């Protein structure tokens, strides 16, 4: 029990230090530009030694952009087996919602990241490249599902969900209430379903 508590404390401390490094790196990049500060500047701003800095991040890019979180392996296995509902869209959405819930993004962090990309457009292609990798992984995961042998269908689902997440993120940053990022994603999902279900009168 004591060992488990100690391990948890160490993990929490490591996460807290990493968060401090990420925030300091993003604030420096917003203020000075990505190339306008050194790793020594970052260590000083984050209140850590250079050695501690490299125990948490591999370099400046990872410090600034952060590490893309992974889907829960158990849920990935369930997804690849065709679960939990058997509907590709719903099941991939469930994976995304769990990830967003686990990351528990707050409005301040999301707004800072947007300002980071606005003030450092050269970082956008790196972020987009990482998103492309994640989308490719999602399409590959979908290909393992029973009967799911149409990669175009999987790519369309991934693109639609990616657009909904991007929209939800923008709405989340702009909101001035206590709604969560997942709340905005759910609203975007419901709206999209309603639009796709609409019947338009035939023209003659």
Element order: H for helix, E for strand: HHHHHHHHHH
Arithmetic mean pLDDT: 91
Shape annotation = globular
Show unreliable segments: none
Radius of gyration using CA atoms only: 20 Å
Number of helices: 10
Helical percent range?
over 70%
- How much strand content do the residues show? under 5%
Overall number of domains: 2
Number of strands: 0
Largest sheet: none
Distance between the termini: 74 Å
Strand-pairing-aware structural class: mainly alpha
Layout of SSEs?
Elements: H1 2-32, H2 39-46, H3 50-56, H4 60-65, H5 73-80, H6 88-103, H7 107-119, H8 124-142, H9 151-174, H10 181-197
Helix pairs in contact: 1-2, 1-7, 6-9, 7-9, 8-9, 9-10
Describe the structure.
With about 200 residues, the chain is mainly alpha-helical. The protein has 10 helices and no strands. The longest helix has about 30 residues. The chain is globular. The model has no long low-confidence stretch (mean pLDDT about 90).
Question: Can you give keywords for this protein?
Answer:
204 residues; 73% helix; 2 domains; single chain; globular; 10 helices; Arc Repressor Mutant, subunit A; mainly alpha
Brief overview:
This protein is mainly alpha-helical and 204 residues long. It has helices at 2-32, 39-46, 50-56, 60-65, 73-80, 88-103, 107-119, 124-142, 151-174, 181-197. The termini are far apart.
């Amino acid at each position: 029990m004591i060992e488990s508590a100690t391990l948890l404390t160490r993990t929490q401390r490591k996460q807290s230090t990493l968060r401090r490094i990420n925030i300091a790196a993003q604030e420096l990049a917003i203020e000075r530009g990505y190339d306008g500060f050194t790793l020594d500047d970052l260590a000083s701003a984050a209140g850590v030694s250079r050695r501690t800095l490299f125990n948490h991040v591999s370099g400046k890019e990872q410090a600034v952009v952060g590490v893309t979180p992974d889907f829960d392996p158990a849920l990935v296995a369930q997804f690849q087996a065709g679960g939990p509902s058997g509907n590709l869209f719903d099941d991939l959405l469930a994976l995304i919602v769990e990830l967003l819930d686990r990351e528990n993004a707050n409005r301040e962090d999301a707004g800072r990241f947007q300002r980071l990309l606005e003030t450092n457009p050269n970082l956008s292609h790196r972020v987009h490249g990482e998103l492309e990798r994640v989308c490719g992984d999602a399409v590959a995961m979908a290909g393992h599902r029973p009967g799911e042998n149409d990669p175009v269908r999987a790519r369309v689902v991934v693109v639609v969900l990616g657009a909904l997440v991007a929209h939800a993120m923008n709405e989340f940053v702009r909101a001035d209430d206590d709604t969560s990022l997942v709340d905005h994603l759910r609203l975007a999902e419901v709206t999209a379903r309603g639009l796709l279900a609409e019947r338009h009168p035939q023209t003659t």
